[in-house]
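Quick one, T. Sequence first:
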Amino acid sequence: MAAYWTFAVKVGGDRLASYAAAQANYPAATRQELQAIAAPVLVVSGERDLVLGRGASLAEAIPLGEYLEVAGAGHFDLGRNERAQAEATRFLSRAIGEA
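Structure tokens:
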């Protein structure tokens, strides 16, 4: 969790929002719900993510979904992975610019 908090601060995010999201218990979204998402979504997973697995099919189900798989990374490596941070920052900058 600390890596995600550090990244949230680095990009000007809200650490409490990150904490709240981590504590939440959401049911899995249906394909119909995913197809109704109108906002751009970046799905990031590690090649060795044993917690959530790979997210390519999730990204494909979202109309404006993009997928990034980080080679050699596990689930908990992503928050401190420089490539994942750079791609998330690029994605958010582009999404905010389009808003």
